[in-house]
Amino acid sequence: MECRLIGVPLQIGAGQLGCEMGPSSLRVAGLKSALEELGHTVVDVGNVAPAVMRDFSHPNPAVHHLSETVAWTEALADVAYLQSENAMPIFLGGDHAISAGSVTGVARRAAEVGRPLFVLWLDAHTDYHTLDTTRSGNLHGTPVAYYSGRPGFEGYFPPVSHPVDPANICMIGIRSVDPAESAALGETGVTINDMRMIDEHGVGVLLRAFLERVSAANGLLHVSLDVDFLDPSIAPAVGTTVPGGATYREAHLVMEMLCDSGLVSSLDLVELNPFLDERGRTARLMVDLTASLMGKRVMDRPTRAA
């Protein structure tokens, strides 16, 4: 497979500085060589630059850096569409606001080839706020609402040409949801698997059910991996730490199952803040998880006939 690494040094969607160094940290941690060792062709296309910025203001006084975030979204949506032709784009964040552009871009590509896009959202948060409902004003809490076509972005963000059907979105690892998000999500078809569901059923059971749906629909699958999906004890380099996240083995199991499925067509790696890391520990883990997604195995296990 040809993988295309796309750096998105966006940090204005979050409340804490440092995510702009995320793409460099992933590169220094050896992402390109890790994928090449697995036999993939890897092209690093460099970092995205934002589009021309226009001045926006919003009635919600909490919203900040709206103009800049819109400019990044416009640019990244175009890049995502272009770089997803006959290749797997891997978006190196940057905060989770990058998904407003990455997902809308690959959704356009999916529609062009006549296949539905599904999204696996690996995160502690649902990121389902609109510009009206966010209390922090941090726009990394809005991308799912935006790319799934929820009203509240008109006149600011670019129109979403191919919104992702909420029924095609599966969230795993959720453990921090604001009341406004919870109420709005209750009216959608988004599948939400919080950490209690993982504790009760196991992450493998939950993920397998979703992957079967993607396969049955002949869908393309975008995976968005936020560092705070992981427990802070193994991944401290994130400004939005929430205790009780996925363990090392749970995270690798998710990646190994995704690899086995053969369904993943694009990937976000987001919210890595190397300023908060411990000698590159989290960056190396994110590289290891990506390698698991792309075929790294401790042992090759033959598929048994049914």
Task: Provide a brief overview of the structure.
This protein has a single domain (2-293), classed as Ureohydrolase domain (Arginase, Chain A).
What structural keywords apply?
single chain; alpha/beta; 306 residues; Arginase, Chain A; 10 helices
Main sheet: strands, sense, barrel: 8 strands, parallel
Order of helices and strands: EHHEHEHEHEHEHHEHEH
Q: Number of DSSP strands?
A: 8
Strand order of the largest sheet: 2-1-3-8-7-4-5-6
Query: Which consecutive residue ranges, at least 5 long each, have pLDDT under 50?
Result: none
Strand content: 15-25%
Q: What distance separates the N and C termini?
A: 28 Å
What does this structure look like?
With 306 residues, the chain is an alpha/beta fold. It has a single domain, classed as Arginase, Chain A, CATH 3.40.800. It is built from ten helices and eight strands. The protein has an eight-stranded parallel beta sheet with strand order 2-1-3-8-7-4-5-6, sandwiched between helices. Helix 6 links the parallel strand 5 and strand 6. Helix 7 packs across helix 8 and helix 9 packs parallel to helix 10. It is globular. The mean pLDDT is 95.
Helices and strands in order:
Layout: E1 2-8, H1 22-28, H2 31-36, E2 41-47, H3 66-83, E3 88-93, H4 99-112, E4 117-122, H5 143-147, E5 169-174, H6 179-185, E6 191-194, H7 195-201, H8 203-216, E7 220-226, H9 248-261, E8 264-270, H10 281-293
Parallel strand pairs: 1-2, 1-3, 3-8, 4-5, 4-7, 5-6, 7-8
